[in-house]
Amino acid sequence: MFLAMATLLVFPLAGCGGKKTLKVGATPAPHAEILQSIQEEMANRGVEMEIVEFTDYPLINQALANGDIDANYFQHEPYLVDFNEKNGTDLKTAAYIHYEPLALFPGKTKAIADLKEGAQIGVPNDATNEARALLLLQDQGLIKLKEGADLNATKLDIVENPKNLEIMEIDAAQLARSLQDLDMAVINGNYALQAGLNAKTDGLAMETEDSLAGKTYANIVAVRNGDENREEIKTLIEVLTSDQVKAFMEEKYQGSVVPVF
What are the two backbone dihedrals, phi and then psi, of residue 25, each rounded to the nearest 5 degrees? Predict the structure, then answer.
């Protein structure tokens, strides 16, 4: 028993003076790509950053809550708040990094003016992003939402739908793959990028930075409550909000990823 305890005590002592490690969960694009761009700088500052890629939103927050990773970078704050409320977790925003405008992409129908009666429009099926998608459709005059629905809107709040569009609630990760079967779809920025789509150049319409969504849905670094004061997390935030990263975003994503720092 004494030997086992002594062995456990050796590990922290062996790590003294070495690099600290940090596991960060992220979706592949753009989040993991942005993190990859700073791995060398993080190492230069004494932090070995491991990027753990996920493709399923809820799993990333659960991994953080469980302690499998130290931070994550993939979501906006309303999604985090909704996740905490539904799962009893206590995850916290550590920093606001960038904004990804949602865009309406063409599927079987290539122009908004060509949408026919009963056309099928795909939207994300999670609460926060569905509201954004519906607000974008409203901005294009395709539907009208109940007054005051705003960022809590669901398709049940549609009060006018002149073309009787069929709003299809689909998992956000599947929307780009579903485009061939839909007339159009509103797709999250990261999933659009993974599918080779750019909101600014390929989208028929996109959220603007000064829209309600643009002011609300900045993507964040999330941590467990209290961990925002860890030195490794502070280093991550400092590097992620540097001029180096701003230039990387602007050059690589050409307006589909907008820094907010």
Answer: -85, 145
Dist CA 154 CA 126 (whole Å): 10
Positive or negative, the Cα torsion across 19, 25, 27, 30? negative
What pLDDT shows up at residue 156? 97
Summarised one tens digit per residue, pLDDT across range 27-80 is 999 999 999 999 999 999 999 999 999 988 889 999 999 999 999 999 999 899
What 3 state SS string does the chain have?
CHHHHHHHHHHHHHCCCCCEEEEEEECHHHHHHHHHCCHHHHHHCCEEEEEEECCCHHHHHHHHHHCCCCEEEEEEHHHHHHHHHHHCCCEEEEEEEEECCCEEEECCCCCHHHCCCCCEEEEECCHHHHHHHHHHHHHCCCCEECCCCHHHCCHHHEEECCCCCEEEEECHHHHHHHHHHCCEEEECHHHHHHCCCCHHHHCCEECCCCCHHHHHCEEEEEEECCHHHCHHHHHHHHHHCCHHHHHHHHHHHCCCCEECC
Residue type, 181: D
Q: How far apart are CA 251 and CA 247, in angstroms?
A: 6
For 118-165, the pLDDT digits (tens) are 999 999 999 889 999 999 999 999 999 999 999 899 999 999 999 999
Query: Structure pTM?
Result: 0.78
